[in-house]
Amino acid sequence: MPALQFMKWNAQLYLKLFVLAAVVLEYISADAPEIQKFSFQDDILEGKRVSVMCLVASKSKAVNFNWFKNGKEISSSERNLKIKNDNEFSVLILDPVNLQDNANYTCKATNIHGSDQHTAYLNVKAPPKWLETPKDIIATIGDSVIVTCDASGSPKPRIYWKKLSDKMNTTIFSTSKEQVSNESSHQLKLSSITYDAAGLYECIAENGVLNKIRSNFSVIVRELPEIEKFHFKENVKEGDFVSVVCLVKTGSQPITFLWYKNGNELIISNKKMSIENSPVISALILNSVTTENDGNYTCVAKNNFGSDRHSAVLKIKASPKWINQPNNIITVIGDAITASCIASGSPTPQITWRKIADSRTQSLHSLNSTYLNNSDSTIKISRVSYGDSGTFECTADNGIQPSIKANFTVTIRGRRV
Ligand SMILES: *[C@@H]1O[C@H](CO)[C@@H](O)[C@H](O)[C@H]1NC(C)=O
Ligand SMILES: *[C@@H]1O[C@H](CO)[C@@H](O)[C@H](O)[C@H]1NC(C)=O
Ligand SMILES: *[C@@H]1O[C@H](CO)[C@@H](O)[C@H](O)[C@H]1NC(C)=O
Ligand SMILES: *[C@@H]1O[C@H](CO)[C@@H](O)[C@H](O)[C@H]1NC(C)=O
Ligand SMILES: *[C@@H]1O[C@H](CO)[C@@H](O)[C@H](O)[C@H]1NC(C)=O
Ligand SMILES: *[C@@H]1O[C@H](CO)[C@@H](O)[C@H](O)[C@H]1NC(C)=O
Ligand SMILES: *[C@@H]1O[C@H](CO)[C@@H](O)[C@H](O)[C@H]1NC(C)=O
Ligand SMILES: *[C@@H]1O[C@H](CO)[C@@H](O)[C@H](O)[C@H]1NC(C)=O
Predict the structure, then answer these.
(1) Mean pLDDT of 94-100
(2) Counting C-beta atoms within 10 Å of the first and last residue's C-beta, which end of the chain has fewer, N or C?
(3) Distance between CA 210 and CA 47 in Å, rounded?
(4) At 279, is the pLDDT very low, low, confident or very high (cuts 50, 70, 90)?
(5) For this chain's UniProt record, which GO biological process terms are given (predicted)?
(6) What is the H or E stretch that residue 4 is in?
(7) Tens-digit pLDDT profile for residues 141-193
């Protein structure tokens, strides 16, 4: 039975070889652990939960896991950190993840035969968020101001500036007037401000994560109103139409106007007077003027920053008009007589007297000062004689046509008895 014997012996040999091979195989496979490469997701947003798995891909025994953040060991005891271990893998969980978690994370797997490690970089992204936005700016012409807009975010947001004008929104680069301190800067410098700098501005922060954010602010240029000098035209006559314009040369809107006459606010009391206002002018209109309209007119222009005023005097020229005309006088020789001629007008009329010497010659004499007392509006004859009888004429004249004349007669009827 040698054949059977041989087979049995052979089988024993195979079994021994198999066991040996198994032992050798096991020795070979029980190698140092080998980690499968891992990485964090690309678009992780701040506040979310993030995890990464460190898997031992090789068949290895009794593996111990350690995690390192930028080379420093970390453990589950940390605030937002959890580590879940199993025989073949370890999971690192950050919940909620924030920008401070951005780091290199290393997983190290160790067993009795050795170790392996793999590092992945965590890059948490955060949309832009304002740290500082500008308030509205009120500046005076010539001022220089620096405006700051600052935003956090990851990656660091780019900040740029726009002026929102009526037609186009222009992005501000470095110009002589408006300077951005750096190409992408959180500071905008407006130097020696002019009226043109006024307007609505916007700063925008953008980093490619979610939406850009914008913040707007106004630059208000403070300008006091300044009235251009005005005056009434000369030689305004009664009945004329008179207007005067109070123009504000410079000044921030809104501007309000007020008119005063001789220090009192002008009340529009009738249709003969009106005031027409527009943003920069106020027109005072007087129809068919009389000397009642004479006065010192003041225009006051006011805005939020101050006021200006200008005054002009209106003096209406009026031809003479009688207030008192002389009556005919009948008297006796030796009596005293007086006669007055009083006229209004602007300027004040000059009164001149003449005597038509007698009805026969019709010649005219200017009356000399012996007839006149203090004022030229009255003549006085203290003792009349026959020679004083006749027709007298007084004329009121102020250069404004027509001048006016009045006659009166002095009639003498004998002597006092
Ligand atoms: C992470 O590792 C890379 C590659 O070694 C290195 O360039 C980078 O500076 C590291 N980052 C940090 C935050 O340590
Ligand atoms: C300018 O910007 C404002 C605010 O962002 C926007 O409402 C407006 O449509 C823009 N105008 C133009 C012409 O782009
Ligand atoms: C940009 O800003 C930095 C810091 O504010 C400053 O040191 C640097 O000079 C600026 N660069 C330019 C070109 O203005
Ligand atoms: C400016 O900002 C305010 C408040 O954020 C907003 O209501 C307004 O529409 C903005 N104006 C413009 C022109 O963008
Ligand atoms: C007119 O009024 C203004 C303001 O009350 C005053 O300053 C000015 O002297 C006045 N002018 C005249 C001629 O009275
Ligand atoms: C004024 O008139 C009277 C009467 O006509 C005359 O007597 C007198 O001399 C005159 N005086 C002068 C200064 O002309
Ligand atoms: C002039 O008038 C004043 C008062 O009106 C009077 O007192 C005076 O006597 C008069 N003079 C003459 C010369 O008549
Ligand atoms: C005044 O008397 C003269 C002479 O009689 C006459 O010519 C003239 O018209 C009279 N004037 C008036 C206003 O009555």
Answers:
(1) 93
(2) C
(3) 14
(4) very high
(5) homophilic cell adhesion via plasma membrane adhesion molecules; synapse organization
(6) helix 2-29
(7) 888 888 999 999 989 898 888 888 767 777 765 444 456 655 556 888 888 88
Which ligand is the nearest neighbour of the Cα of 170?
2
Q: Which of 169, 204, 211, 215 to mutate to test the pocket of ligand 2 (most atoms within 8 A of CB)?
A: 169
Distance of CA 107 to the CA centre of its chain: 59
Ligand 3 site, residue 174, Cβ cutoff 6 A: no
CA dist., res. 48 & res. 210, Å (int): 14
| Total-model pTM | 0.52
pLDDT tens by residue, 319-372: 999 999 999 989 888 888 888 889 999 888 888 888 876 555 444 555 554 566
For a mutational test of ligand 5's pocket, the pick from 232, 264, 298, i.e. the residue with the most ligand atoms closer than 8 A to its C-beta, is 298
Would you list the DSSP string of 123-180?
Answer: -EEEEEEEEE-PPPEEEETT--EEEE-EEEEESPPEEEEEEE-SS-EEEP-S-SSEEE
Q: Say what the pLDDT of residue 191 is.
A: 85
Ligand found nearest the CA of 406: 8
